[in-house]
């Protein structure tokens, strides 16, 4: 019996003489590197801190038989990490994140290739240009800024690349009649759902592709529809059965209420109209409701795209259909608040948007390549700015998480108390309505013991993280902090439990995690530096200068209950005696005032001081009463102004 082969469809040949695949790949690489290269400096964050520990010891067989801690069944995506581990490579943030960047680059290149395959000789002025433009639109898709730098979002680039490759193979199989291409398409369609649930949409995408082929062939001779999409749909149904068996709860978030669908639709349509969304933002500034402004931009975008691709209806049909099919799962299963927090759900739909915008702008006949390129840059510029600032927010807060891991590595046997680590950071205004464009670094589901442990490859069960609002400085952006709120007596009990304390510092552009000190049990010895009043003894003052940053460690002992609420001041003076820097406040970055100390407490109080220049300075310490402004008298050290010299820097 002779084996059946896919039917061959006569279509206009691809512009091989003009196509430069290297250019499409170069654009994909360049934009991905420029926009996301800085993300290689980020630590693990968010779901990484849950899923990385889960996978450290999991065998490949176990991986394919169970769901992740979040209920995902995506073993193909997680298998990339298993292969990474099997190759003897450590689970480092930069290494695993590089997989995401490679996946994004590959997906952008495949989108460009698909755009070239879809080109219509009658509708283009420069063959192959649509591929370059489509790759650029995908690589710089603004709402991918969450997915690409987030290690645990590797399944988005993976399933998107697989979906595009399956459609590409199907297109070429139908053009050439090659069984090999069709087999490749079917194989990928069978694997893709194991990377992400959106892989089950490939059957619908193949059906759209078949209809696009039929629309394109009508220009010459109307070809019959092929039954091959039914095979792809069959694979999707088979996986759905497996998925429902493994995830016995099914889809628990399905919501078909008109109000939710309307809100979700308003959010999701931004993925198609993003080049014109700044126009909707401008409308909002003149009191046009945000939802109405978004739909005005969406209607303008669709009208413009239809006009640009009016000579290539197959492109418009496949691009628009791809977008609608891809947003379908999020439309009916997500809460609007979740979508607003997670624009990454638009990542698979970016293929349709990129194909439509890239092909549409490439097909404008009256403009030169230079003018068309300028239009693409203008269309992409808001998205590029959005991505750049989004990565900035991740870097701003991610540094504190990275420094938490460094602190744990330096103190493997000491439990650490992290105070006010950043959770959510976002600007108060965004280029796009509803999407803040910030970073969600440490959501509540992250366990304290894995903040540093996930980076070090071992759980740290004694580490604790808390939030203390009273020591947070005001900021000009939206901020929430990680950890259970704690203050007062409960905070004092925790501090005296042996923790080394680190506090997030929000005073500079980048949030750093600074050492604040710890209660020590070793009795003081030797001669004290000074006594202040009848209750406080300063036993030592050690200083370390790194560049223009001075770390001063003060060893205090409370000998009797103080009167009032005394606190510490640290003055740094120049050669003329002018105070150029200060580090005033209660010990442990303000967490543990002397008035709360039990008598006999001994504590190391660390203060980080930024010096204005690299020159000679003197460092003085004293204790004063904020209520009266009075300085406690100094004993055991010559002083006439209620302060003692504890350090000098530079040449005196």
As residue ranges, the low-confidence spans are 13-19
Mean pLDDT level: 91
Helix content: 40-55%
> From the alpha-carbon coordinates, what is the Rg to the nearest angstrom?
30 Å
The strand order across the widest sheet is 6-4-1-7-8-14-11-10-9-17
Coarse shape: elongated
Strand content: 15-25%
Individual helix count: 20
Instruction: Provide the domain count.
Output: 3
Structural class: alpha+beta
Q: Sketch the major β-sheet.
A: 10 strands, mixed
Q: How many strand elements? A: 18
Note the quaternary state here.
Answer: single chain
Cα(first) to Cα(last) distance is 97 Å
Task: Characterise this structure.
By secondary structure, the chain is of the alpha+beta class. The chain has three domains: 21-365, no CATH class; 368-520, no CATH class; 522-652, Immunoglobulin-like (Sandwich), CATH 2.60.40. Helix content is 44%, strand content 15%. It has 20 helices and 18 strands. The protein has helices at residues 21-36, 48-55, 60-63, 75-86, 93-118, 129-139, 155-176, 179-191, 202-217, 228-246, 258-268, 270-273, 277-285, 290-308, 313-333, 336-341, 350-362, 369-410, 450-456, 488-495; strands spanning 416-419, 422-426, 439-440, 464-467, 478-481, 484-485, 500-505, 512-520, 530-532, 536-546, 549-558, 567-573, 579-582, 602-610, 617-625, 630-631, 634-635, 643-649. A ten-stranded mixed sheet has the order 6-4-1-7-8-14-11-10-9-17. The protein is elongated and about 105 Å long.
